[in-house]
Design brief:
With 345 residues, the protein is of the alpha/beta class. The protein is built from 13 helices and 10 strands.
């Protein structure tokens, strides 16, 4: 029996002080939160719908219409749909290998909203909000109310960063840091950039993929204004995620003061075949992104039905090496709690 942490998910929109919503925020306000509504949009017949859909309050379905438009209608096995559709039997197996905190985030917390696992780097939990709830999310049980970097906690956390000159890179994570309004994100980046020993800023985000409209003029301007190099790590798992709107948004980032990398999660029934991964690497490079990591699944409670056997993962990586130049082959890794780096496989 697993006791669930009540993550108390944050609101999915960070509004500007004037309460005037930008286009991407309006799209988030209209995002789909009901499995039945999602299956209606995709025209899945009632007789084909799973009888065991779930939509728990601690981790409910959430997906933007932009992402839904890339799903194939009348296909329950669509690889994008499978990433977001909650299935109660699969998510409640009670497997002894599943964990609430599979990568040791809570043990790595050194200050409110700050995680330190690896030498020279620190990760800020900038918000608990996301534009999509991926069913394999390793932070689906994370206590964001306690750990997010709220305005009240800023000073304590930044005092810690300023006092540790061995920290050279700040990673903005969440949730998704691009769910912050441009005003809040700009203030955060400005404060990070002002610390003399911080050499790089890294932003981990899924929004260029699931909500391309977020890459707007205001975001581009604040990235341009950053006083330190910016690395943006996007998260695409399948080539079908990279439609023209998404590619155009990513290319726009590429032209403005950023290094673009991608990380994927290896997911059973979604991208665990060599041709899918080969096509993904090629489409990423076409958009101006280098494949970076291919993660083995973090064994978070509720997601073990996505797990791929390590021997299969090794065969897939070998197939990629045989088909692609080395710079298009992502590193196959696993994150293990307490280790000083990702574990290459």
């Amino acid at each position: 029996m697993i006791t669930r942490i009540n993550a108390s998910w944050q609101p999915t929109i960070e509004q500007t002080p004037s309460l005037v919503l930008e286009d991407w925020q309006k799209q988030m306000a209209e995002a789909v939160r009901s499995p039945a509504e999602l299956l209606d949009i995709l025209e899945i017949p009632d007789k084909e719908r799973p009888e065991t859909l779930t939509n728990t309050s601690h981790f409910p379905l959430l997906v933007s219409h932009s992402y839904i438009q890339r799903m194939k209608k009348r296909d329950l096995d669509d690889p994008l749909l499978r990433q977001v559709l909650p299935l109660s039997i699969e998510e409640n197996t009670g497997n002894i290998n599943e964990k609430l905190d599979p990568v040791g985030d809570l043990d790595a917390s050194t200050s409110p909203g700050l995680l330190q696992k690896y030498q020279g780097r620190a990760l800020l939990i900038s918000t608990g909000a996301c534009a999509i709830h991926c069913r394999y999310c390793f932070r689906r049980h994370f206590p964001y109310n306690e750990q997010s970097l709220t305005a009240k906690k800023w000073q304590t956390t930044f005092n810690h960063i300023e006092a540790h000159s061995d920290i050279h890179e700040i990673i903005l994570s969440g949730g998704d840091p691009l769910m912050l309004s441009n005003q809040r994100l700009s203030a955060l980046i400005e404060k990070i950039s002002a610390i003399p020993h911080i050499k790089r800023l890294r932003i981990h985000t899924r929004l260029p993929v699931v909500l391309p409209s977020r890459i707007n003029n205001g975001l581009i301007e604040l990235i341009d204004a950053a006083q330190i190099p910016v690395v943006i790590v996007i998260h695409a798992n399948h080539p079908n995620e990279l439609d023209d709107e998404c590619v155009n948004a990513i290319r726009r980032l590429k032209r403005h003061n950023t290094t673009l990398l991608n990380q994927s999660v290896l997911l059973k029934g979604i991208n665990d075949d060599s041709q899918t991964l080969i096509t993904l690497s090629e489409k990423l490079f076409h958009a101006g992104v280098l494949p970076y990591y291919l993660h083995m699944l973090d064994k978070v409670a509720g997601a073990l039905h996505f797990d791929v056997d390590p021997s299969c993962a090794a065969q897939l990586t070998e197939a990629l090496r045989n088909a692609l130049p080395g710079y298009l082959v992502p590193k196959l890794v696993r994150e293990e709690s307490g280790r000083p780096s990702k574990t290459p496989l």
